[in-house]
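ok trying again, last paste got cut off:
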Amino acid sequence: MRYFIVDDDRASRVMLSAIINDCELGTVIGEAVDGAEAIPQILMMHPDFVLIDLLMPNLDGIETIERLHQNGFKGLFIMLSQVVNKDMVAESYAKGIEFFIHKPINKVEVQMVLQRTAEQFRLKSSLQIIRQSLNNFEVPEIEHSKKTTREHIQSILNDMGIVAEVGSEEIINIIEQLLIEKHKIAPLPPLKEVYEKVAMLTKTTPDDIAKEIKAIEQRVRRTILAAMINLANLGIVDYTNAEFEYYTPRYFDLTDIRYLMQQIENNDQRKAKVNIKKFIQVLYSEIISKVN
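nice, full thing came through this time. structure:
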């Protein structure tokens, strides 16, 4: 991915560049201290993503985005902001930003957001290429095949914004393992047993399997927490959002999501109780329903 950073705070620009380079997320192709300086450079360089501060002198983030759109810029925007205001957030999303990164800048949050948005960018690009290819041919009839189990799971994880998370592959393997062994929806076997089966797919020695079991649990827990944070962000912007309304009451405890929403609005550390068993139980039940 090719990034352009617009922020009047030099420390923020340096920190973002370092995170992008250190985590091998892409290349920073340019920087600017405000919108007026950024616009001609962005229109010339055509970056994939513009990381842009909300509040800046001369031209603020929203005004800069509007002018770039007026000039035909097709890249994507990620907003940087220390202000968590519902109206500002809603206006920013309406102008076409992909996500918010909260200030002060946190390396883990930046890495998570950029990985997720890059994955979505690649998926959109692939779909666009496929559509363009199909438009060049006359196809008399297209046979629509049923979705695979993996595709069903990926679709749900994508709705929650975690399909690109490291632990998403473990979640897919867990559901596939339960399906292979034809477990009943309830009760599920102890999670440790399922983790062990998944660990044995890549590890052979008892020590390696034991270590991998712990690693799987940690990755799955972090990924589910990321889903909770994503849904909480959606709920802050629009409590009637389709994904928020569907997934929140089914997969999570509403009290935990509301607590996360409060933390986000207060710019506190994102912490919440993660119920892995409930998440796996509901996902397994939903996949059985979809496959059948």
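cool. Strands lie at 2-6, 27-32, 49-53, 76-81, 97-102. The mean pLDDT is 85.
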